[in-house]
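Worked problem 6 (solution included).
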Amino acid sequence: MKTVFSLSILVLGLGMSCQPPALAAAPDEPAARTTVELIIEDGRPMVDVTIATSDDRRETARLLVDTGGGAFIIPESTARSLGIEWGETFLGDGREFARPKAMPRAYLGDLELPLEPQRVLIGIGQEQDSEGAMGLFPGHILAQHHVIFDYPGRTLTLAAPGSVEPEGEAFAMPVSQPMGFPRTEITVAGETWGMLLDTGPPATIISQAVMDEWQAARPEWEHHEGAAGLGEALARAGGHVLETMVLENVEWAGVTLDEFTAAAQREGVFEQYMSRMMTAPIVGALGSNAFMDLRLELDYQAETLYVSQP
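Solution. The predicted structure is:
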């Protein structure tokens, strides 16, 4: 996102809506909680989501679970299979999108997802990519739930807000509206930096200006021009990588991250563009390489992050 990986879809479909819809209670008492397999492909978390039409035709699409993503994106291949029609197409960061003429429904396990019409898009030309993802499960939908990413256990849980007794150490996690983007902080080279908590990209992304500061402060840290290591995974996923640095002793949420890869994005993407969508300024996006050994609970309602090591 993120984050450049998410920048192509961060604000597409935002429309005029300013508040996320409430979780609706239907007469048949729909599921209020679901736990599904969390599929890790090239460092990115994905889930299988069922897309359904009004006549109850159903298809499964593999979606990237992206706390920094802005639109619910259905791949064209899935839309065609279901007979979903769409209107005029438009471009976003070089990719083509369209809005469905009739709203589909979406389910994670037995839980129906609260789709918001202005933020549902068809990814034109989009099929399962080389890394496995077929679409996007974005932050504003996650933000309407209590979310548990159990990376070691390879599960994702969505539950009704206030219905879960959290586990782990608690940390502040301010959440922006209407995007539902969670903010966190890391400490690098003795300084604290604001970040988007961003499950989408496989590597952490940072402003080039900040990476220049880190390189000056810690010239002994491994550094590469262009993509290297996890930076290559980020580049394969569509991110733009100017430089790659391997950080040491990064402090985040009570955890020390060592030999930790960060990829540089041009200055201003986070400081100017992304910070406007956050509760406070940020300089980068903390990616999935920070989370692989951890269990994260995102209590969006209480704006609190809980972190534990299973």
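Discussion: The chain is about 10% helix and 35% strand.
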